[in-house]
Amino acid sequence: MTTxxxxxxxxxxxLFTVFYNARAYYPVLAILFLDLGLTLDQYxxxxxxxxxxxxxxxxxxxxxxDTLGRKKLLxxxxxxxxxxxxxxxxxxxGGGVMLFALCITNRFxxxxxxxxxxxxxxxxxYDSLLEENRADRWDKLLAATMRWRSAGMVxxxxxxxxxxxxxxxxxxLPPALQLSMDTAHRLPIAIVLCQxxxxxxxxxxxxxxxxxxEAVVGSNFREAYALTLKTARWVFTNPKTLVxxxxxxxIDSIVRNFATITSSYYRLIxxxxxxxxxxxxxxxxxxxxxxxxxxxxxxxxxxxxxxxIAAVVSLAGLAALVxxxxxFGLLPAMLLxxxxxxxxxxVSRALHAEADSSQxxxxxxxxxxxxxxxxxxxxxxFSRLLACFPGQPAGAALRGALLWQVPAFALVAMMLFAGAxxxxxxxxxx
Length: 430
What we know:
Helix content is 80%, strand content 0%.
């Protein structure tokens, strides 16, 4: 296979990640399920099913990508995305057991799709680049991908927030084309279904790098798990990857947990609900500039220093959330969201530099597994923390939890960076 055969993969990778991640239902995800007729407890259970599915399949899917080929996993991920959207599109409003069953299927397919795509897409794109100056080429491709993904999120957040409510649309539509509430609520799902079909078409046109075909050692899960265990052992015994993954998951878990409760925080700082989609779009637009900053900082400083920058910025943002200033409280929230992009760039760059091509997707999946495990454990701890505070007056529990997570994160961060510094000094003496 020639290099020319792979030349289209980087462009297809960018298109895939934009259409796959920029989903129009994101600004209304929680209320979408509630408006279908689920209770809040059922919605929480669905999130648990989604997270558990990713946790169980994240690493084996990466190992299968390294043994069976990245393209196959990406095609499967896109097919699952089509199925998950069809489940929601045809889910009956207030449909009882049938509704809940379809929503469970949706969350399972969504989690499995995320697990299959995670690592395989980056590994295929990275190995499709020319070997000469590959690390620098990857920095540029990753930066371009993050920018286009941010642009896609801007469009998706604004569009999803606007079309979910039929009243603004019906003001400009003729009487014959007036939308019902149920139809408007399905529009974001229909748009993402179209994106899923586009993702399927893109993945079918991808080309596996030569080493994928040569590296196939079998097509069963036993070989995939063997590669998983071998790679996980390497990740957590290699000092460089150990530091990146452990410190990265500590920062990611607390910031990503906040990302899932932003709507509650926005209510706490007295923002009207109609602004949520525009806020998400603004953050996506802000994310357009993050790769440029991340690339410059990662070129100038070492990985540990950049992780330190991410930790300090995160701590400052978390502390600034506590006063919950009306309107101005939005600034630390935006700072935390941009930190996620910077952290993702730093971690991805460091792991790609250390990982061997034959196990690249598995390494990224091990990282994904660790990050999801950290996020799940922190979310569980945060929910317990919320339960320790009174629910009244409104927002009191959230204020208390936001306050106590600041010293907890500061203590954990100091311990981790102290350990990383000791590990670095010991390796220098060896």
